[in-house]
Each structure stands twice: as C-alpha cells, then as structure tokens.
Amino acid sequence: MSSWDWQVFCKDTIDGEIVPRCFGGAGDVTYLDWLLSAWGWTLSVSLLALGVALVLGSIMGILRTAPHRGLVLLGNAWTELFRNIPLLVQIFLWYHVVPALIPPLRGVPSFILVVLGLGLFTSARISEQVKAGIQSLPRGQRMAGLALGFTLPQTYRHVILPMAFRIVIPPLTSESMNIVKNSAVAFAVSISELTLFALQAQEETARGIEIYLAVTGLYFITAFAINRVLHFIEQRVRVPGMIGGGR
Amino acid sequence: MKLIAVLGTLTLSVVLLTSTPALSQDAGGTLKKIKDSGAATMGVRESSGGLSFTVGDGKFAGFHVELCQRILADVQKQLGLAKLDIKYQPVTSQNRIPLTQNGTVDIECGSTTNNAARQKDVAFAVTTYVEEVRIAVKAGSGIASIAQLNGKNVATTTGTTSVQLLRKHERATGVDFKEVFGKDHADSFLLLESGRADAFVMDGQILAGNIAKSKNPADFRIVGEVLAVEPIAIMLRKDDPAFKKAADDSLKALIKSGEMAKIYDKWFMQPIPPANKPIGLPASEATKAAWANPNDKPAEDYAKK
Q: A188 contacts in B (CB within 8 Å)?
C-alpha cells in the first residue's frame, strides 16, 4: 500500500506495459511523455498569459494615473471588472457564455480563450501594482519632468516609469508566480496541462501519490524558476541612488 | 529563509507519506466488529448517478445504498442485535479503497468497478449492476456509431476511465477524434448541449441521468455500440469470508424474491430526488444476466467474451 512505484511513469498510456527507457516513440506514449507535454501546456498558458497581463496591466495602470478623467475611469473600470469576478467564473464566461452571444468566437480554440481569460484577470492585479508604483513617487518628479519641457508621454517614458517599474518588480514577481499556479484552471476548459494530467493519470494508474508528487514538483520548479529570473532582473536593473535602488 | 522553506516542504511531505492509517483488521472480522460496537459504517458517494448520491443534510440514497441497508438489516438479524447504528461516510474514487482497507468503512456502496487490480486489495459482493459505456449525441446529428465520430469533437470527463477507453479505441480502429474534457459530468454534458462537442462518451446511467435532467430531453439520444462493459459492485474488506457470505446471501435472496428488480425500478425508472425526474434507464441485458447468475467476476472477464 505505502510502497513506492515510480515505474508508473514508464508505463504506456494505452496498454499499461512498462516501456524500456521510459520514453515512448512511434505512436506510443508513456505517462512520462504525457507529463512533460502537460508541463509544456502549463508553461505555454502561463507565459503567454503573463505577456498579455504585463502589457495590458501596465497600460491600464498608467492610464489610472493620467491627468485625464476619462482615461482614469477606463483604467479603474477595467481593473474592478476583472479583479472582482472569480477566475474560474471568468474562464467559464469566456468559454461558454461569450461564444453563445458572439457566434464567430466559437471557432476560437480554448487555448487562446484561457490565455486571454487568465491574462485579463492578472492584468487587473498588475494594473493595481503599476498604479501603486507610480503613485509612490513624489509628485515633484512629474512636475520636474514637465517643467523641463518634456511632453506628458516623454515624462512617463523617461522620468516616471523607469523608477515605478523598478519599485514594483517584487510584487510583479509574486504575480508572475501566481499566474503559473492559476494556470491550473485551464484544465476546466480541456487544456491538457498538469492538473488535468494529474486528475486523469491518477485514475488510470491508481498511483495517485507518485503522480501528484511529480506534478507538485514541476509546479514548484516552474514558479521558483520565474522567481529566480525576476530576482536576477531586479538585481541587474538596480540603480544606486534611485528610489528603491538603495543598499 | 530559503533553507527553512525547503525543510518545511520536506517535513510536510514526510508527515504526509508516513502517516499510514492504523489497520484495524481484527481476527473476528467485520461481523464481530459490528456486533461489538453495535454500529456499521457505510461508504457512500456524493454523486454517482442513481447508484449512490446525497439528498442533502448528510443523508444518502440510491440503488446501492438501499441494497446495503438491506444487507445490514439482515446482518443485524443474523447477529441478534436489538439496534444497529448505521453511519454514512462519504468517499471519493481516490480514497474509497484505502478507507475500506483500513476499516474506516465497513461496506462501500457507491459505483466501484470490480476489476482484477482492485481484487488484490479488496473484495466485492456479487455484481448488482453492469455499467455500459455508451455515446450520447444530439438527436438531429445523424451519428449512430463510433466510426462516424471521425474528425468530430468528443466530450468526456476528466478523471474517468472513459478517457483511456477513447484513447484505446482511437488506436485500435484508426478513428481520429478530438477529445474535449469536461471537468465534471455536468460540464461535459454542457459541451454537448452547447455544440462544442458532437458526442459525449460516458457510463450509460450518467448519460441517461444528464439527459433526463436537461431542458429538453428529446433533443438527445444514446446511440451506437456498447464501448465497454464494467461490473459495478458493493465493495468489502478482503479476506473476510463470513461478512462476504452475509452480503452475498442477502443480495441473492433479494434477486430470488424479485425485490432486486423492484429496487432497481425504484431508483432508475421512478422519479428520484433532487430534481424528481426519473433517470429512465431500464436494466440492461448484462445487468439481468448478472442477477440470473450471481458472481463476483472482475471486469477483465467481461472484456474477454
């Protein structure tokens, strides 16, 4: 009962026979092959969603600090909309409800929908952090930029954002790690990522503990690798003397 | 800081892995345990179609739950107990076997397939229900067999044996379909209903139950060949012949008196909670054959014929 059976990963997913060297080939798929492909799906969903979230989140965060009521309203509405609806509900809205209202969206693969859904959800959180980063700067910074003859976009580009983004790297790191863990919701819309693999493979093999441990390990490695990469970036871009760049 | 995190993870996993439940297989077996404690624990499922389901408030009902209640009533008589306290313990497909082995559950009344691998760990009473894996489609789709699913989207539920079954079929027949996975049966059915999937492959009683509960049951059909046959049985602890005999004798008596068919009718043909709609699945030939000739053969023996 409590004995280990790591050989389970070497089994063929169709006949359950143990395949030598653990990797199938020529149409044979082992659980190890499947695990790695599931990891690939998790990485693809997470990284693409992270891209969407960083771009949209930054734009919305910046709009929320702009000296223009309409833009602030747009940014606020965006943020509140996407952060006040539970993630799983948002994914289902994209998958089941939106295509029912707009029929052409039916042809969009669920992979794109989940990348968008996860990306938009996270963009609301990133927008909040970017806004906080910008507002943490003294008001004089913006005024100084404008007084020097910069236009508003130039002030953002050369004065405000270089400091604000450095300040928000730590919370962005957490958010980037969260996106890996949140990508588990993709199983609900039929993306064969790690959580779907775990649910399915433990049923087929009856070796739930081994399967879940392997999947847990891969989630941990992925999130931790993102943590290290962003930590490295944080170190590299640090400017002594700039706000948040001390030490 | 980092070291603490790593150590914490390690300790946690060690604790999780070494806490094997205490074994309580006393020499007298389950009958003695029931006699001494005046109580029996029934393993039940939250949602296993008409076989075993919750009606809320910690109460459970269904075909297998009622059969187990009959078995325990007979056991009570046999042991001469004035009062037998029946406890209901919800189980999942992940924990039902360990909980039966370690004595938390005395008799599991859910929807467990009797197969050779499980017979190494647990015992089964005689088969009371034979599940057939079928295909549900929209009535107007024109699909009538699995061969017509070539290039179509086929829904099934994550964490069920149907997923593996589809994969086997795909390889054996060269039929190439795109699998879509629902996170539970209701979700898979929604995929079929909304047109994201052209077919839903699952246990017959689950298909029938979902169709019965849908807005317009006439829109759906269960079609095509039986893809797999699995004997579903009440699960017991292994190596406890006295208790297995008591369970088998009760069930055989129910079959003989015709009660079995009546109880089946009650749960599969009459309206049942929570929607008060019938599942509408008459006993299959395979189920009737299992009643005619009570046995505890594993699923592998069904596949051979």
A: 183, 187
Q: What is the mean pLDDT of chain B?
A: 87
Domain residue spans of chain A: 33-198+216-237
CATH label, A33-198+216-237, candidates 1.10.3720.10, 3.20.20.80, 3.30.420.40, 3.10.25.10: 1.10.3720.10
Q: Report CA A166 to chain centroid distance, whole Å.
A: 19
Residue B148's SS3 state is helix
pLDDT digits (tens, 9 = 90+) for B134-146: 999 999 898 988 8
What one-character-per-residue DSSP string does B80-118 give? Answer: T-S--EEEEEE--TTTHHHHHHTTS-SEEEEEEE--HHH
Residues B46 and B63: their CA atoms lie apart, in Å, by 13
Check whether A102 has a pLDDT greater than 60.
yes
Query: Which tens digit of pLDDT belongs to each residue from A132-188?
Result: 999 999 999 999 999 999 999 999 999 999 999 999 999 999 999 999 999 999 998
CB pairs under 8 A between A and B: 51
Chain B 173-192, residues with CB within 8 Å of chain A CB atoms: 179-183, 187, 190
The pTM of the whole model exceeds 0.90: no
Here the ipTM equals 0.79
Radius of gyration of chain B from its Cα atoms, rounded to whole angstroms? 21
Q: Which domains does chain B have, with CATH numbers?
A: 28-130+231-304 (3.40.190.10), 132-229 (3.40.190.10)
- Is-contact B93 B29, C-beta < 8 A? no
- Among candidates A14, A199, A220 on the partner chain, residue whose Cβ is nearest the Cβ of B158: A199
pLDDT at residue A103 is higher than 80 = yes
Q: Which residues of A touch B121 (CB under 8 A)?
A: 1
Two tokens, residue B261: 């068919």
Torsion of CA B71, B74, B75, B81, to 10 degrees: 140
Q: Does A36 touch chain B (CB under 8 A)?
A: no
- For chain B, say whether A208 makes contact (Cβ under 8 Å): yes
